[in-house]
Amino acid sequence: MQLNGKIALVTGASRGIGRAIAIGLAKAGAQVLCTSTKQDGCDDTLLQISAAGMSSSALMCDISNAAQVEQLAKTVLDQHGRLDILVNNAGITRDGLFLRMSAEDYDAVLATNLRGPFLVCKAFSRSMAKARGGRIINIGSVVGLTGNAGQANYAASKAGLIGLTKSLAQEFAGRGITANVIAPGFITTDMTTAIPEGIQKTMLEMIPLARFGKPEDVANAVVFLSSDAAGYITGQTLVVDGGMTM
Ligand code: NDP
Q1: What is the pLDDT at residue 1?
Q2: What topology is assigned to 7-240 in CATH?
């Protein structure tokens, strides 16, 4: 699955799944643009990509901020002329039981996890449509399919992302753009190491493949969906969860 000559952008590439996706795409030959909300947030990611003999660059962008997203798209399109692969990976959690969940925590999660991908897709889809090709890959979650106690905001955002993605898949199919969701299960990153050990143990027992996922497990699926091999796949949700939710 070669991506030589492709330009790819990964939001939230400073750590965890986003970093693994950026490295995976770079190893497949793509030139990767990494974003984070911090100026030097992606430094380690860039180092790991250059250690693998590939080049990449970093851009700062809070995806919940429309002006920053517009500036990001302007910079990318001015510098590279196009974007071939867009991976909306950045996401946050603000967990809490529903009766205690504040509207602020609900809005914050929706702003990053659902409005963010909307803004980023909007900023790049016109140029993809003009180029008559492109790949949009949105990182959802299995809880967008199943719901999850304590994550009403997060589950709503990820379920919404599936609806957004299917709509984009339909609107842009005629322009050669595919749009898919990858829904990871439990992947070991900063986001999940905060989960209490007892709950982690219970979750592990629910995974037929008997291990938590690695960020690379998600990255491999992104590389596949970015490749020519996945050219006939659109509007789908690919679950990467070791069989947890089957
Ligand atoms: P991490 O918390 O480890 O990393 C989150 C990334 O998102 C960071 O790079 C962070 O960048 C970035 N980010 C957060 N808010 C914003 C924002 N407003 N604008 C731009 N970037 C932002 O998370 P994971 O790697 O675990 O998760 C990545 C994605 O995978 C998320 O969408 C998550 O919902 C999803 N996912 C994760 C699962 C897991 O088990 N880990 C399971 C299912 C889905 P920085 O802070 O440097 O700005």
Answers
A1: 82
A2: Rossmann fold (3.40.50)
